[in-house]
Amino acid sequence: MRKFWEFLGCGSAVCSLVMPLPVQAQTAQITDSEIIQTEAGLQILLAGEATAQTRIFETFFGRTRIIDITNVKLAEGAAFQQDNPGEGIESVTVESLDANSVRIRIVGEAELPEIAVETRATEIVVGVTRATMATPPEALPPAAAAEPGAPPPELDVPSTEAVPLEEEGLRLVVTAARRPTPEAETSATVEVVTAADLEQQRPLTRTVADALQTLPGVTVNRLGLITSAVNIRGVAGERIGLLVDGERRPNLEFGPDFGSIDPFRVERIEVLQGPASSIYGADSFGGVVNVITNTPDPDQPFAVTSETYGGGFSEFNTNLEFSGPNYVVGTTYRTAGDARDGNGDTIPLNGTEYEVFDLYGTGRYDINDQSRLILRLDRHRQNDADLNGFPSPPFIEVRNDFRETNRYSLAYINDGVPDGTELELRAYYQRSRRQLDTTTAFTIPGPFPTEITVPGSDLTDTDSYGITGTATTAIGDATLTYGYDFSRDNSEFENLINNVTSPDASREFHGLFAQSVYNVTDDWTLTGGARLDFFSADSADQSKDVSAVTFNLGSVYKITDELRARANFAQGFRPPSLLFLFGNSPDGSFFAPTQGVVQSDSDLSPERANNIDIGLDYTSGDFTAGLVYFRNDISDFQGFESFIPLPGPPGPPPPSIQVANKDVLIQGLQLNAAYEVIPGLTLEGNLTFVDSEDESGRPLNQLEVFPTTALVRLTYARDRVFGLIQSRIYGDQGDVVLENNEVGPGSDGAAVFDLTLGYQVVPAVQLTFTVENLFDTQYAYPTSNFAAPGARVLFGVNAAF
Predict the structure, then answer these.
(1) How would you class 577 by CB atoms within 10 Å of its CB: exposed for 0-12, middle for 13-18, buried for 19 or more?
(2) What 8-state DSSP symbol labels residue 586?
(3) Can you name the CATH fold of 303-800?
(4) The model's pTM
(5) Angle at CA of residue 164, ends 161 and 166, nearest 5°
(6) What whole-number distance in Å separates Cα of residue 449 and Cα of residue 319?
(7) What is the C-alpha to C-alpha distance for residues 704 and 596, in angstroms, rounded to an integer?
(8) For 242-378, where are the alpha helices, taking DSSP H only?
């Protein structure tokens, strides 16, 4: 009954945001776009259907002015780019940002262009004026000369909202509310890795997780060079949700497989920090990583791109991709040999070699102007990957013999459902097979104790499938996104040494959700939502059923044009994983990184979290900054505790650690700032401090303790040259819970420098030079105790045809 009233209450909160607003927004179609030259400068004219319900968001970065217009879409052929349309203007681009938004990008040659935006009955006019503009050069299509006596563009634009921007192009985020939402209306903390970031840092990112390691509030728990999990504010593993283009990737043994995503095909990554169970369900107890890949674009001509780099430690990476208006097809091969640490020693236990092969394809079929089908096929194969950060006694060696993932998904998207509703239906099937080989050492007691080693080899086969239906309806100044999620994961486990197969285990999720964004005034936005989930887990004759209601509520207030305050409350809920409930061996045990063999518990309670974020965001000219305080109270956190096992037969000792519930408090601060010193030269940095402990004051497991981290980065990008130098700074991890549930020192602190330089030889070819760990620093990866590679020199070439 209590859960019913909770759900009713949070449902009422959502309804209160949207029910008083009866007017529904329609998506207007832009049928014609052109540049008109005026005495005052330029006018960018977008003409088409009635535009009364559009919303306009303006921002700038460096010499680029960006205007994002929501509730509009471009007709075929209405997008364009024109170079040098007038003196002082380098380019003007009109393009689709997503299915219901249009972006206008105006780049000045030496200064930031001045603009004014006017919304008319069936037109949107952007006036561009600059003191340095004189008589414009001869018009280039699609520009047209203005009529004599045409009035200059108006400069008073009360409807335009200035929105903070950390990087060029960062205007909308899609993860915080399951739909494209202006950053100014997002109360939760969302960090973004843009396409420009990914391109500059490509040689430094072996996997998608590597691309996140310099974000505030994020670190990477490494089990090997390409086997890792994401740690968000001290919450990691299965508590972090992974989406690819908005589609769920299932959890495996210790979290979603970030290594199965080809890093070459990624265009953008968003990280929603803090509990997101009320938005995405149990997988997102500690946050969500949404990886957005390159997808077919009707305006995209045929193109071939290739990226190749290699060098130190026998590392070689190459990607080849073909793309057109309705398809993207690519393949990637990555390999590396044994790396050496900063002291020149081969990284134990048995090296860091790996081999990876990826094949991917996406097809698009446009049913009509408003609806389309998108089919995705992915295949990933990883061979012989050493897991240096994995073993703990009695294990002395662990290796992934192979990991193989095949995934198929189909999406139906309709932007023109009656009553102004957008509809998405998605379905997926994924099969993941992996073989883990181990070596354990133990001592046979007696008058003459004997130490022996025992090999192990386990094959796990997991198939997952799911469907999601999401609808978004604009109602006046509010937007409601609602839908249903279903997923099921089935796992089989086989011991290849003794041919023993454990009982199959399965987990099933059903979720109903709603999220809303309501603009109370031009300066004040409310966000909120709720979710009702039903979970079930089964293995042999054991089962576990549970349900939960979670909600989130937030507020964003623009104090001044430069300063924005936000607060967000969000709940988390997570039932125990299959491993924690039933294990994967006949005796109910399983192996956990840094803990060794652990005994499961079918009576384990679900985790619950209450998290609050309070933040300030500041933007003034070329300077941006942000400060966030967060506090996450977690009850029944699923951790470990020691126990005395019953005596067993001769052989490997039985587990002396079991899973257990405990209460945990995690709180901390995040700070970030960026300043464009001169056009093209940007200095940025961030700092994260996290404090965590359980109810007794005992520290958490090493993989869960977030060390203090910082980043200082200097980037330059102008004309044909770009460069990046950064320092990754890690503090001491302090006391953590290590193997055998004992408290001891975690990873040591370090400061590591990286360098990347690039030169565009011709417009289609770029050369790169990269040094990871520039000064050959000897250090261990944070949250693990295995040594990181020393200086790694890589050369690369990127080409597009």
Answers:
(1) buried
(2) T
(3) Maltoporin; Chain A (2.40.170)
(4) 0.80
(5) 145
(6) 54
(7) 16
(8) 277-280
User: What CATH topology corresponds to 173-293?
Assistant: Ferric Hydroxamate Uptake Protein; Chain A, domain 1 (2.170.130)
How do residues 603-615 score in pLDDT, each as one tens digit?
899 999 999 999 9
Which residues, 6 or more positions from 632, have their beta carbon under 8 angstroms from its beta carbon?
Answer: 233, 235, 274, 275, 572, 609, 610, 611, 665, 666, 667
Same fold, 28-129 and 303-800: no
C-alpha R_g of the chain: 27
> What average pLDDT score do residues 114-119 get?
85
Report d(CA 674, CA 713) in Å as an integer: 9
Do 670 and 627 form a contact (C-beta atoms < 8 A)?
yes
pLDDT category of residue 49 using cuts at 50, 70 and 90: confident
Neighbours of 527 (CB within 10 A): 24
Q: Dihedrals φ, ψ of 264, to 5°? A: -70, -25
Cis peptide bond N-terminal to 349, omega within 30: yes
In this structure, whether the domain defined by 28-129 belongs to CATH 3.40.50.720 is answered with no
Domain ranges for the chain: 28-129, 173-293, 303-800
Q: With contact defined as beta carbons under 8 Å apart, do 103 and 73 qualify?
A: no
pLDDT tens for each residue of 356-385: 999 999 999 999 988 999 999 999 999 987
DSSP per-residue letters across 32-77: EEEEEEETTEEEEEEEES--TT-EEEEEEETTEEEEEEESEEEPTT
Q: 637 burial class (0-12, 13-18, 19+ CB within 10 angstroms)?
A: buried
